[in-house]
Write a structure and sequence with these properties.
It is built from 6 helices and no strands. It has about 150 residues and is mostly helical. It has a domain of about 80 residues. Helix 2 packs antiparallel against helix 3 and helix 3 runs antiparallel to helix 4. The N and C termini lie far apart (about 70 Å).
Length: about 150
């Protein structure tokens, strides 16, 4: 018969859980200097997929938080991706993946970093026309609407 597993809060072990606990993570604050930072241009000699990946960063929401060092990291990651696409060296792919995770490229990377992007507000410019069209179709189908 096996022993039941201990609940996570009752397990002994290293103090790493206190380090990972968000209540104990210190927040360092500073002044951003990202305004006016020129975004480096993708190197034309890079593989088309590496250029596409790099160019897509500027369109991604998380790039609003990028500082100059983040763009330098993005250039380094794109160079690593370019080398991987030319050599298929798995070690280089691992470096690219780690760098892209640090940049918050995928949604799971952003969740791990506690970055949440919101969708832009949408406005329906022809909402009235759509309502009218639906009401007309309902009339043609014999659907009776409640009086407002």
């Amino acid at each position: 018969m096996t022993k039941p597993r201990k609940q996570p809060e009752r397990r002994g072990g290293s103090a790493s859980s206190a380090i990972d606990d968000p209540r104990f993570i210190a927040i360092a604050k500073g002044i951003s200097k990202r305004k006016g930072i020129p975004i480096p241009v993708a190197d034309p000699s890079w593989h088309p997929l590496a250029r596409s990946w790099y160019n897509s960063l500027a369109y991604s929401g998380q790039s609003e938080f990028y500082e100059a060092s983040d763009w330098a990291t993005a250039v380094t990651a794109a160079k690593a991706y370019d080398i991987f696409l030319k050599t298929y060296n798995a070690g280089i792919l691992g470096s690219f993946v780690r760098l892209s995770e640090r940049l918050g490229v995928t949604i799971s990377d952003r969740k791990r970093s506690r970055i949440e992007l919101s969708d832009p507000e949408t406005t329906d410019v022809d909402e009235e026309a759509a309502d009218t069209a639906v009401i007309e179709w309902q009339g043609r189908l014999g659907i009776v609407r409640e009086q407002e």
